[in-house]
Amino acid sequence: MDMRVAAYAVITGDDGRVLLARWTEGRRASWTMPGGGLESGEDPEDAVRREVREETGYKVVVDELLGIHSRVIPAGQRVTQGATTPLHTLRIVYRAHIVGGRLRFEKNGSTDMAGWFDLDAVGGLQRVKLVDIALGMAGIDRA
């Protein structure tokens, strides 16, 4: 079984909107929380700060750990072409706030854009399940 540990951030603006990044793989694209996989030996808080910066252009401070979501994806349901083993994902979710930078899109990465969304619009987006899981952990009602 393969394993992937990743760290993500729930970031809301003063206007109540939430920051999302658009994940792409091949022709597939879905909105997700900004964040991503830990590098070997990397602290999860360092990883989430690095990933948010890479994917959105913003510098953040981590406020609190919201929770950890664990999921095993059967080999046949993985998006990775040719995967023959299940994938165990551990997703560490933090609340964070912006302290610098400006919105910009990642180049040559796993995301191709980022943006701010009104909570009532999130339900209409093509999104990964992590968005709803993370917002739930943060106690944020999408209206």
TrEMBL record:
Its cofactor is Mg(2+). The keyword Lyase does not apply. Residues 1-141 form the Nudix hydrolase domain. It holds the Pfam family NUDIX. Transmembrane segments: none annotated. SUPFAM superfamilies: Nudix (SSF55811). Keywords: Hydrolase. CDD domains: NUDIX_Hydrolase. Belongs to the Nudix hydrolase family. This is ADP-ribose pyrophosphatase YjhB (NUDIX family). It comes from Microbacterium resistens. The lineage of its organism: Bacteria, Bacillati, Actinomycetota, Actinomycetes, Micrococcales.
